[in-house]
Amino acid sequence: MADQRAARRALRDEVYDALLELLVAGEWAPGTQLGIDALATRLDVSPTPIREALVQLESTGLVMRSALRGYKVAPPLDAGAIDELFDARLLLELGALRAVPDEAWRALPEALAAHVGEQRRQADDLTEGAGEVTRLRAYLAADRAFHDAILTATGNRYLQQMAGHIGIHGERLRQFVEQRHSDADLAIAEHEAVLHAVESGDREAALSAMTVHLAGVRERTLRDAGQG
After folding, report:
1. What residues does CATH 1.10.10.10 cover in the chain?
2. Which domain of life is it from (predicted)?
């Protein structure tokens, strides 16, 4: 019996991860109905783990459930929700910078520099128009990795879990805004300011640079979403 429960949980988690990946990749437009039977056929599972996964996904805000109509993809974030998302990021990421232990702080510049370098390489390829969609995803992955490196350096699993939940909404937001390549240079310059402050050992300067960066990303996101 215990083995059966464990197998059921494993299948539910596998289905949840598969649906989450499809949602954040923009597989379905906002408002699209998510038929349980169709999803079960697509993932080659029974309807039960699909239903359980959708219940979990509803708690993330990625899907919505209405009586008699089932589940559908949630609408894009509005200006108020975008502001709340960035308020949460600001609290979390500034807290993370404060929480990085001194030993991890000294090792942090190497990781941050690697991610900034990867961002720069991918941004250069975007400018050249090479494999635009793939390169854009690679650029955004390097951007996320920069921030994740700071969370990882805290050594606090709960901060990392919170960041993961917020990150889901950040990924979702990326599906609904126009990505402007000209912003890449701004974001990279802002990351470099954070990096240089960390390299110098000036935690207050790093906090200031991160505040400026997140304010800039917020402004650009609202503009691209037509909310600014």
Report:
1. 2-73
2. Bacteria
CATH architecture group of domain 79-224? Up-down Bundle (1.20)
78-85 average pLDDT score: 92
120-132 in b/e form (b: 16+ CB < 10 A) is bebbebbeeeeee
**Per this entry, what is the length of the chain?**
228
Whole-angstrom distance, CA of residue 213 vs CA of residue 216 = 5
Among the listed residues 78, 81, 93, the one whose alpha carbon sits nearest the alpha carbon of residue 214: 93
pTM above 0.90, yes or no: no
90-119: pLDDT as tens digits: 999 999 999 999 999 999 999 999 999 999
The residue written with tokens 């390489």 in the block is 121
Give the CATH class of 2-73: mainly alpha
